[in-house]
Amino acid sequence: MNINTPAYVIEEKLLEKNLKVLDRVQKEADAKILVALKGYATWSTFDLLEKYLSGATASGLWEAKLANMKPWEVHTYCPAFKDSEIDEVADISHTVVFNSFNQLERFENRVKDKSLIGLRVNPGVSSSPVPLYDPCAPFSRLGIPKVNFKADKLKNVSGLHFHALCEQLDDALERTLEGFEKLYGEYLKDMEWVNFGGGHHITREGYDVEHLIEMIKAFRSRYPNIKDVYLEPGEAVGLNAGYLVAEVLDIIDNGMKIAILDTSAEAHMPDVLAMPYRPVVRGAGEPNEKKYTYRLGGVTCLAGDVIGDYSFDKPLEIGDKVIFEDMAIYTMVKNTAFNGIKLPDIIIKRKDGSIYKAREFHYEDFKNRLS
């Protein structure tokens, strides 16, 4: 593929493969699936998403406005809404989910005639292997714990929302759903909808989609008054549907071979350092698994801007392309222009094989974020 680097590439064929799996869940389980924009917000692909999904879920006003680019359902949750933004959020949202009774009591009268009101509750089931991504960790600020739940304040509340998963399979949802019902099941008879949150790796190999469908159907049978069941995965939409292409700028030796790329873990794939994790590189192996081992480093001045150690069948050369897999999610939405390095282009590979450059970034984009 002859493209300028660095560049994120999303393949429509792979994206649609994920969307078809999600649509199957919608149809067979009578559920609605929303794309969580916090994980995948490439709006140049919204036309394709709109064909399969029921809407989008936002984490605040700007994401809600982005979701509102399409005539689908827009759902908005924020740990705390601003007074200056709540009216606009309500105007464009199908549901507005509050994180506390303080926020509910402050804003419910400004929302109730425009949107359905929900509360995020904390099911108290920790299953994420990384504390940074565990909404049910001790002292969490996300979701109302049962000890603080006020049943007498539910007059304008039509739905409950929980979110406790991160990149997890169906068995984690089963445990979380059990905990949610144990704590809050008594209130569900008065609700119109429930949102199971995100973190469902539905399109990942090994995920038992049949089990998910049966769990949702069983839940609906237990609460026949519930009109809508929502799931809001972000990663499952773009999982393995895109990659980041970089170029080798230099190769140095400081006790081992180090390839410096025109990309950055810190700026362009921040979860590599934050989670942390080691992304898959196309055609590469573990250190010393293949004949030639290199440390792949970013182009910023951050000493720790290292992506990882990889081995290759043949020596890397200056000018070679290196492809990092699964880079359509939590990359574009979290990247930065740290050190003033160029943000990657956003490329869409159409189903017919043609290449569409959705966005190219320039110096002015960097300058205009500053003052």
Describe this structure in words.
- It catalyses: carboxyspermidine + H(+) = spermidine + CO2; carboxynorspermidine + H(+) = norspermidine + CO2.
- This is Carboxynorspermidine/carboxyspermidine decarboxylase.
- By secondary structure, the protein is an alpha/beta fold.
- Strand 12 and strand 13 form a beta hairpin.
- Strands 1, 10, 11, 12, 13, 14, 15 and 16 form an 8-stranded mixed β-sheet that branches. The protein has an 8-stranded parallel β-barrel with strand order 2-3-4-5-6-7-8-9, surrounded by 4 helices.
- The chain has 11 helices and 16 strands.
- Helix 1 packs parallel to helix 7.
- The protein folds into 2 domains: 226 residues, Alanine racemase (TIM Barrel), CATH 3.20.20.10; 128 residues, Lyase, Ornithine Decarboxylase, Chain A, domain 1 (Beta Barrel), CATH 2.40.37.
- The chain is elongated and about 65 Å long.
- The longest helix has 18 residues.
Mean pLDDT: 97
- Poorly predicted runs are none
| CATH fold annotation of the largest domain | TIM Barrel
Structural class: alpha/beta
Ends: how far apart?
37 Å
Query: What percent of the residues sit in helical stretches (DSSP H or I)?
Result: 25-40%
Shape: elongated
Please give the largest β-sheet: 8 strands, mixed
| Percent of residues in beta strands | 15-25%
**Structurally, how many domains make up the residues?**
2
CATH superfamily of the largest domain: Alanine racemase
Please write the string of helix (H) and strand (E) elements.
EHEHEHEHEHEEHEHEHEEHHEEEEEH
Tally the helices: 11
Name of the CATH first level of the largest domain: Alpha Beta
Supply the CATH architecture of the largest domain.
Alpha-Beta Barrel
Q: Radius of gyration, Cα only, in angstroms? A: 22 Å
